[in-house]
User: Fold this.
Amino acid sequence: MGIESYSLEQFGRRITNQYLDKLEAGISRLAENPELLREEPPFHASLRFYRIEKHVLVCETGVRGKLIILTLLHASMDIPTRLAELEPMLQMEVQMLAAQLRK
Assistant:
């Protein structure tokens, strides 16, 4: 279930819209200030993290200096396990994006 669907079910439209606005504002803030990203040593060196409310953006910074948002995870998740599950798909997506950026 996605963030919007879950939030609508749990909190209603007004709170959902407020939360989605906060997520969008956080992503915009990060685009303007990539230095806000944090490195987490147990993860790959090109991964960076940024918390917005109860979610964590997982970003890739190793593709030609570009910031790529890989996924958005709830902070209560077991993030290392979830990233391990997503790793094959995320690697494929990063490779495809890198190829497009080279064009």
Notes: The mean pLDDT is 88. The chain has one domain: 3-102. Residues 49 and 58 are 5 Å apart (CA to CA). The longest helix spans residues 79-102.
